[in-house]
Each structure stands twice: as structure tokens, then as C-alpha cells.
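Homework help thread (please don't just give me the answer)

Our assignment gives two proteins as sequence + C-alpha cell strings and asks us to describe the second one. The first is just a warm-up. Here they are:
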Amino acid sequence: MANNQGRRRRFGSVRQLKSGRWQARYRDPATGQLRSAEDMYATKTDAEVALTHIEADITRGQWADPEAGKVHFGEYATAWLKDRKLAARSRERHESVIRLHLLPTFGDRSLSSITTAQVRAWRTACLTRTGEPTVVKAYQILRAILNTAVDDELIRRNPCRIKGADRYDVPERPVLTVAEVFAVADAIPSRYRLLVLLAAFTGLRFGELASLRRRDVDTENAALMVRRSQAEMQTGALFDKAPKSDAGVRPVAFPTELLPDVKRHLDGYAGLGRDGHVFQGPQGGRLRRSNFRDDWINARTKAGVTGGVHFHDLRHTGNTLAASGASLRELMTRMGHSTPRAALIYQHMVNGRDREIADRLGSMIRETRGDVDS
């Protein structure tokens, strides 16, 4: 029988150090330079087994440079964010989440040192000091950063593997009755009355309403043309942004019963000229959530609408009221959630089914006011 003692290994080599432990060495498949395995081993057999695993990883194309994963998370996250194509507001939110919720725990750690157990412990700690929606967002961003690190071959596996951590159950938001909508509209300062009514009976978002110009209001067809949405940075800067998709640009019919309110508002509160903003702040400047919030809270309290109703719940109310008799496609189009280009659907929307939806809302308004045709 042939004696294999002393035969050189086909891949790599092992050697015993002065400490008595064993070291495994091999050629870097990319550079050809000699490098050592990350760990030291108690026996020669352990070192040889480690070499066998390294060789198998290289053969399968699954080998990753152990040095690559030593990049600090903070450094990598900064570069990751810089490379993302994000809208200004989204970039600001990502930066805030990374700075406040990820860097304090992971910033000085190397990418390869982050484990699933550490991610789980971080998440548990976060849930004790901030709301679940924020923690879910932070987890999603952490997972996205580490997914990119996997793609860059800096780590072999993403440690964000916590089932269900990327979502949460959104509590059911309240739906106001038509009478409650008018009660709040009657209680709020007159410059904001139409804002409340249109939010409820068109389902437009606050940002879409705040960005409306006079030229976007079609009083002949009782419709609004949504072209943009106002966004606010943490610095307080305001800007109009384009919709995320073609579906965001859309005409939305409103009940003809609101036409007197629309005309009174345009005459008394809207900015001048075709490009004048329909809704303005109390001093004639841009409408901000901050200069509207107190008026909203006071009005809902005065109207007796309880349950912590948010202004955005008017959109939910509008969705719910409009859903009666509307198909899913019609409702999605009205709310800006579908993909058809607005230019192709404008005539259909104003003169067709969207007008029928608005007319049904109008009948609800007449019934609430007590002026239903006999």
C-alpha cells in the first residue's frame, strides 16, 4: 500500500505554529496571493477540513474574500445611500433612519460581524423605545443595505432573516359619516372648509390638495386635475414633486353639490392668477401641515368627532364612500393607484364612471343636508 505521508496537498497547505495550533493557507482565487484562513485550528485534521470547505466554496463560486466583510457598516451605509436614486424627501427619510436607528448599533461593526442574533436583539430594543412602523422601516433599510453587500460579495449571507419583521398590521382607520365631514367643515376656519370637503369627497392627499393651482380646477365639469404633490423637508423647505407613476396625474370629479363651496373659496381665499394656489396659509403663504394642524384638531373636537381622527382619514373616508358601486379599477384610477396615462382617460373620467361616482357622493350630501328631491 502506498504511503501518503508527506504527500503535498493538491489545494493549499497547513502548518503548525509555535503555539501548537494549526494554520490553513491557500491561494486567493482572484489575485493568486497566499493568504491564511481566518481561524486557527486545534488539530491538523481540522485545518485540512477547513481547506476542503474553502476549496469547495471556490469551486462553486461561493467564496467571499474574508477581508472584504471587514468594511464598517457605517462607511458602507453612507456609500449605499449616496448611490441610491431617491426623491429628495425619501433620501432625507432614509438618512434620518440610518443615522438615528442603525448607526448607533451597527455603525462601527464590520459587515461580516453582524449576525442574525444581533439584528434580532437590535430590533427588540428598538421596539421598546419607538413605534413599530419606524422599526419596520429601519429593518427594511438595514436589510436592503446588507442585500447590496451580498451582491457586492462582501458578505455571503444577509443576517436580516427575522420572519415578519419587514411588515406590521396597520390598524383600521376610522371612517367619518357624511354628516361628520360637514360638522368638521363647519367648525374649521372658513379658509379651510373646502380643503376638508375635497379631501373627503375626492380622496386627494394633503400634498395633492396643497399643490392645486387655479388652472387645475374645472368648474364647468366639476373636476380637479391632479398634476403634482407638495412635499416638505425636515428643514421646512417646500417643493412640488412629480407623482411616482403616471397614475398620479389624473382628473378627479367632485360632487356638483360642492360647486358653490368651490366658487366661494376661489373668490375669497385662492391665490391670484392661473397659477395661484387654491389653498394658502393664514398669511397668504404656502399651506403647511404645521399651520393647519391646530385648526384641524380644534375643528374635529368642536364637531364632536372623537377617536383621534387624522386629516388623512378623510382620504380613507373618500375611498370608502366612493367604493359603493365602483369597480376596483375605477376606484384605483380615481385614487391614483393604477397605471393608465391620465391623458388617455381624461374624457372618460370626467364624463363617464367617475362622474357617476361623484354624483353618488352628491346624493349622500343632499340626503345629509335634508334636501333630497321628493
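The one we have to describe:
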Amino acid sequence: MAQAGAASLASSPATLTVVIISFNTRIMTLKALETLYQHTHTTRFDCVVLDNASSDGSADAIASAFPKVQLIRAPQNLGFARGNNLAALDCASDYVLLLNPDTELQDEAIDRLIDFARLYPKAGIWGGRTVFANGALNIASCWARPTLASLFFKATGFSAALTKNRFFNPEAYGGWARDTVRQVDIVVGCFMLIETSLWHRLGGFSTKYFMYGEDADLCLRARAFGYHPMITPSAQIVHHVGASTSRTEAKAIAVMTSRASLIRDHWPKSQRGAGIFFMWLWSATRYLATRPLIASNRADRRARAAHWAAVWTARNLWLQGYD
């Protein structure tokens, strides 16, 4: 696992600090670091990895394979938001790049993203294009903010039925292949570049978001200051989604909790009640629609029914959002 990509730049001040939060993803984290050094050629960077008390030997493996990485061993799982805040606390480089441990960088992805940031400095936050391991587009590099219309379309099933329609699936920018430069509402934290001064101005992530939604909250707070996050297709990475979250029900409940929090934190007071109702309706319709599947002879259908039953059962928890 060579670190030659950064060796020639080591004598100069870092332009970038790459921050990775690792939690029981030893093999993937090592691969992410390998591709980071392999495919970054012109950007001077430091790398900080915070290990969230992994039990799979991640910290020792990282220290052994990548001695130049600044490794922080958290005594407990701090979550994504607190982990990133701690790792980037003393960052003095021009930019901070938040990089998931379940990613693999492709040719000059970071170099191209830095060039893009310099070309569009008023964006403040920048992201790239993500693909799955087979090369297929992974749309989850960016999202539009949730609105009353988008939640209504989710609750009534239009977004799921018409995924490529921009009107009925606005949060996913339906039909956009992430193949053009574009302003977006939210750059996802798996591959998010942010100006360090803006990161410090915002105070990093809001720690009320333990997992999921902290990137959306950050971007929406940046937009309130007049910044306009942007995406470029020239910086592309592979993202193996959800490697550190194995329980899909737990993930779904965390996502729903974060969405309720975004509504309460960023929507006008006059719209919050309707937004929370549409989230309740979304869960209710999925629960009722999947009830007949519980007796199916197909395991995937039974799993889908169990998934929405768990989400529905926990509705009183996630509808409140994070404190």
C-alpha cells in the first residue's frame, strides 16, 4: 500500500486535510487509504482517521499500514458528526475533505475536486460523482432539500413510481445522471469538500445528528450564509453504501429521525406540522401496503414487510427528531 502520491508533496504545507471516520470497516478503510494516496498527485494533503472504537482491529491495521496518517483512537463510538468535529478541530489547511471509509478514489478525484473548488469559490462546499462497484451511477452524492411537495409525493408513492421524473421525485433530482456541473442543496458527507474557514464558521456538524442528516443540516446552514454547494462529474469515486450500518431497520429509523429534525430545524414554523404529518403518512402507507407480504412465501417480501413494521412501530420516537 504505497504512499508515493503524497511523498513528493510532504515538504510543503498541506492544502487539504482528509478526514475519515472508521467504525468496523477495517478492510474497506485500508482500501480507501490506499486509493487516496494512489490517486492524489498534485494536492498537498494530510490525512486524519478517527476510529470509533472499532472491534475488528481497524486502528492497529491503519497504524501499521499507513504510519503517516494521524490516527485518533476514540474510546467509544462518537458517531459521525462528533467524530468529524474532533478530527477536524485543529485543521488549518485551506480545505477539509470528508471521506467515507467505504469509498475508493478514482483517477485524480481529489485533484480535480480541488481544481473545481478553486474555479467556483463561492460555492463553499463541493462534491463529486459517486458510482457503485460495478460502475453504475449511485445518485446519493447529493440531494435537494425536502419540501412539502417532495414529502407529499413520497407519502403517496409518486416518487417511488416515477423515480426519473424531476417533478415527482425532486429530492433525488429525478432524471439527472450527475454528469453535469450543477448547484445542489445538499452534498453528501461521503465525499464532501468544504472550505476550512466555512467549516469553522459553522462549528462543524451539529452533534444533535448522531448519524444521517448532519451533512444536510450543514449544507442548509451554509446556504443560509449565502453559499451554494456544487457538484462536478469530473471527480468520481466508488461508494460501497452502508458498510458500517448492518441493520436496515436501525438505519431507516435513524434516517427518519434526521429528516424530522431537518424539518424542525430548517422549515418555517407554518409548514412544520404538515411536514411531520406527511412523514407519518409516508410510514403509514408503506406499513399498510406491506402488511399482506408478511405471509408471502418469498423471503424478500417478508423482509420488506418486517422493515416497515419496525419503522412504523418506532414512529413516536423518530417523529420527535433529535433533541
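TA reply:
I won't write it for you, but here's a hint about the kind of observation we're looking for: Confidence is low (pLDDT under 50) at residues 1-11.
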